[in-house]
Write a structure and sequence with these properties.
single chain; 206 residues; alpha/beta; Rossmann fold; 8 helices; 7 strands; binds S-adenosylmethionine
């Protein structure tokens, strides 16, 4: 961690994080006084995360990440920009979903540039698999969305297959239009530098 990230981590961890626990969050913890809560899984350095929260002060946001320097960086941004509607859970997202998130409670999930695991023998390590999508489906409210973006064509095809087989409904005919409200991310920039195309998917719980 950089000194600024470490300092933010040491100073603001308690204020802006929800500690991992084996009990569902209360409605107050989850909604933080708002009507809708959006969860971002694997926010990396959190560039898009705090920007989206600042752009939508009427919604509550929770970012889940295991990479501690990213947690430090996002804590720094929350404090610097006085972001009131964003909390962090530093833990594995699968456990967080299972243990802390009540069913039918989430208005949207964001997954931006999940680890691509490009080698075929590693594809099973990819986060977005049918079991994982079943978890998300369970946690979404009716009308809630899953918004996934990747720059790996082969992963995009896999995500599209898994989502199409799920009970979620594609909001678009195939890949989604680029959402102009989504800020760019660190990994998106790296993908664009390699001239990768960007594939977006937006599916809704009926
Ligand atoms: C390729 S990075 C993308 C980061 C960011 N979304 C971006 O676009 O720059 C994927 C991130 O997902 C996080 N991640 C992977 N599996 C996770 C899990 N099960 N729970 C929480 N975070 C996870 C990794 O630590 C990593 O920071």
């Amino acid at each position: 961690m950089s000194p600024a990230q470490q300092n933010a981590y040491d100073t603001h961890f308690e204020q802006f994080t929800l500690p991992f626990r084996d009990n569902y969050l209360t409605m107050e913890e989850l909604y933080n006084g708002k009507k809708n809560v959006i969860i971002e899984i694997g926010f990396g350095m959190g560039d898009a995360t705090h920007q989206i929260a600042q752009d939508n002060p009427d919604k509550s946001y929770i970012g889940i990440e295991v990479h501690r320097p990213g947690v430090g960086k996002l804590l720094y941004q929350i404090e610097q920009n006085n972001v009131q509607n964003l909390r962090i859970i530093e833990h594995d997202a699968v456990d967080v979903l299972d243990r802390m998130i009540p069913d039918d409670s989430i208005s949207g999930f964001h997954i931006f540039f999940p680890d691509p695991w490009p080698k075929k023998k590693h594809h099973k390590r990819r986060l977005i698999q049918s079991e994982f999508v079943s978890r998300l489906e369970k946690k979404l409210k009716s009308g809630g969305y899953l918004y996934a973006v990747t720059d790996w064509e082969n992963y995009a095809e896999h995500i599209m297959d898994v989502l199409t087989e799920s009970s979620l409904e594609n909001r678009y005919k195939h890949y989604a239009d680029s959402q102009d409200w989504r800020p760019g991310t660190n990994f998106e920039r790296k993908g664009r530098e390699k001239l990768h195309s960007i594939f977006e998917m937006m599916f809704i719980k009926k």
